[in-house]
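Why do we bother with holo predictions? Because pocket geometry can differ from the apo form. Keep that in mind while you read this record for calcium ion.
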Amino acid sequence: MGLQLILRACKMPKRVQAGLVLSSVSQDRKIRISMETQRVAVIIEDDKDIRDLLHAVLQQSGFEVHASPTGSEGVEAVRTHNPAVVTLDLGLPDIDGFEVIRQLRLFSDAYIVMLTARAEELDTLMGLEAGADDYVTKPFRPRELRARISAMMRRPRKDGVAGAAEAAAPA
Ligand code: CA
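The structure, written out:
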């Protein structure tokens, strides 16, 4: 991610580069830096094909990706890697997605996007109530997932890290 940004900046006209420097010394410097250094994603998904697809999509989006095939391994991965984003399958072999959300919300304010089958529409609502931030139905289009994740990450948190950042930033 960092390198990609630098490469991109090198190709920009000088005026834009100067703008980047200026914005990096502005008030929200700390916020920007913490967001960029926290570009870690954890995938919790038992289907290997979907897991590999998610891995590719998120890596392309600049995330450092860690993938787990079970709910409990996923919870541990979130504890270890402190991701900004978690993609979560509802149907897992050990504990279900709702239980994963419940456990994650005890210590993590990562953005959680649930992956559900269309037939699980009701479950989706339950998931949002349980503390997920968004959901994508399977089969999903990689472009849609990317768009949803970046939209989700722009939405400030009411509390927690992003919420604190929002409070500190001028309106
Ligand atoms: Ca599954």
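The beta strands are 40-44, 64-68, 85-89, 111-117, 134-138.
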